UniProtKB/TrEMBL annotation:
Residues 345-647 form the UvrD-like helicase C-terminal domain. This is DNA 3'-5' helicase. Belongs to the helicase family. UvrD subfamily. Residues 23-344 form the UvrD-like helicase ATP-binding domain. GO terms for cellular component: cytosol; DNA helicase complex. One of its GO terms (biological process) is recombinational repair. InterPro entries: DExx_box_DNA_helicase_dom_sf, DNA_helicase_UvrD-like_C, DNA_helicase_UvrD/REP, P-loop_NTPase, UvrD-like_ATP-bd.
Amino acid sequence: MFWTEDEFIKNMRNALGWVKYSRQLNQEQMSAVLHTNGPLWVLAGPGSGKTELLIWKLFKLIFVDGVDPQTIFLTTFTEKAAKNMFNRIITYYNNLLKHGFDCIKNVDISSLKIGTLHSLCNSILVEYRYDNYHTKRLMDENESSYFFYKYVTMTKSGSQGPSDYFWEYFFEKRPYSKWQRVNYSKILLSRITEDLIDVEKLQNSDDIFMQELAEYYIQYKQSLNHRDRCDFPTVQQLFLKFLNEEEGEKFIQGDMERDLPPIKYVLVDEYQDTNPIQEEIYFRMTELISPSDCNITVVGDDDQAMYRFRGATVDSLIFFGERVKERFGKIPTKIQLKRNYRSHPAIIDWFNSYIANMPEMQIKGARAPGKERMISAKHFQENWNPIAIIEGSSLTDTAEKVAEFIQSIINFRDEKNEKIIDDPSQIVILSQSTRETSRNVGSFVESLRRRGVPVYNPRNRKIHETTEVKQLLGAYIEIIDKNNSELSENDHVLRISTRVKDFIQSCRREYQNLITSQGGIDKLLNYVSQSQLKIESAPPNKKFDATFHRIFLRLLNCPPFSEYLSDPVISPRYGIISAQIEAFNTVYSNYLVKSSTINSLKRNLLRDFYTVFCGQILNSGLNDVEDIDYPILPGRVQIVTYHQSKGLEFPIVILLGLTKQYRVGISYKLERMLSEYRKNPLQLESDELRAAQDMIRLYYVGQTRAKYCLIFADKELNKWKYSLGFDEKGEKRFSLNWLENNNIPVYR
DNA sequence: GGATGAGTTGTTTTT
DNA sequence: CAACTCATCC
């Protein structure tokens, strides 16, 4: 105990008065901070100061209740959010120190357990060496794909492996390629773990496909175990198992011998995006700590749930009250943060009406019980209309109009010759996908670039399309495949899809362009021709003195590639390619080593590189790396997905993709098909309804990002069913007719 | 406004 | 190959 409640509040206010993010807490926030014992359920609407509340709560626990920081377990949804929060905590703490509160200087604030649930589970399992976890390799998404491709039997062979009917049953179509089987397998099998499916129930099902699924799951798990690998869902599964055993109890209860105090508090941010296994982990921890204290705090907004595809269910937040009552016999204290410190009052008025009046959201269980509208809490001096609609005749036309609009506000000067905005990066385009294709933001990027407006789109997943990457891969291809064998039509060893073939060809072209147009690259030419010779004249059964990785590193040593390494844009791209190769190598490590015949050389060297490595790159796409400390690049209009925008705010927001019909994607179907096999089965609304609700929540997230200006842009206004609320006939589905009543201008 | 044909694309989001 | 966009024609 360092301070009393009153001292704590006074000291925090004094110390943080000038810190960028901090301001006085409002009454609801304060009551959540001062809440001491028992479950706490915070519904935090957009821009309501949720992170601020969490940080104050941590500080209150530490400085008023005297809780040891290392006994607090706080999870966030992304690594980025965890880092941000941690940095803010350190800043606040240093400010308290600067204000001369010496009594807290021995508190080790950095020992707080803050991170994503995955990262915390991972580090604790490593620390406790549970089930030899520290010897296992935790695979990322790409590695996991390679793992399936190489080690998992995905087609019927003998008694093992799923049949075509199996895939048809779960995915309604037969996979047309091995990569599709990889993708399907990942979706299906991670679902079993994350939805907390009872594998025994599956085995005992009357449905033969459910039995087959159980078998397939077991096969996969064995193969993971056998090869000492672990995937993302399995980390959580192991952690839950750990909690239910003696070692886990030690972790929770503390270990005197090792000077580890017991865990005391569980706090969860973004609780609406929690899936069943995560919910069980939080509940189990709470139970082990003390079921009678039931010290669990969850914070989130059901209206902003957007990760059902990952197995998350809003239900965990919406029914938190009932679930806690069922399990612990306690009724959580419910607090709604309804003061919005972000948006212009008219924007708040709009999104309040939007979320409350959409017919799909009025169904029971769609939103948290008793939820109230948000109230504007930030003072806005100017009285202007911050909402507008841009309607084009086609997508390209819309893009032109949006670009025109953006250009005009960038250049705009008022009577006093002052700009409206300081920097183009204050304008943000939100879209379902940041891929620069004609269906997505392609035409928008093009229209902007044509007008000389710089654009920042680091997640467009196309660095494999850049010249420098193609040149490098082209050089590699030149080495391993001098004779263009990818072109031979009737080669049964090399069966390469047209997509990959096109990619290989364009890599070759880029390499050819490079060597014909640039001088000073003798070293590269020498290395390539020497290596070609070496491969050609390789004696049978002799090991090559080269692996994919080594050839790649040698190429990087030759100009111009070696010179590219000092380029701030290209160098990180080579880093990404290098990481890809490493992931590939963890599974395909010895394929270059033993080649006895030309055919096996082709099989090992070419096919694996073409269909597996290139296939996977084309399959998943590669993003540029973003600087976590500088997520915004000044001077450029930002392009961001609705998902990425979560937790952020922007002065001017332009929403795209408004005519999109929801898709009852495979995750909705699987959620339903498997729901009866869950450990805790649940009642689900129809697939259609859940998909529609999720679509509405996605748009809600987009709308609530805007501070001063919110623009809706797309073609065919009367088809904006879920984004603005029209029906099939173009009539407004809102009883309110909000848009008309507020004279929202439409620019055509 | 709808028929036609040319052209483009390969869902999407994160640990 | 299927699904979609979009310009163009009447």
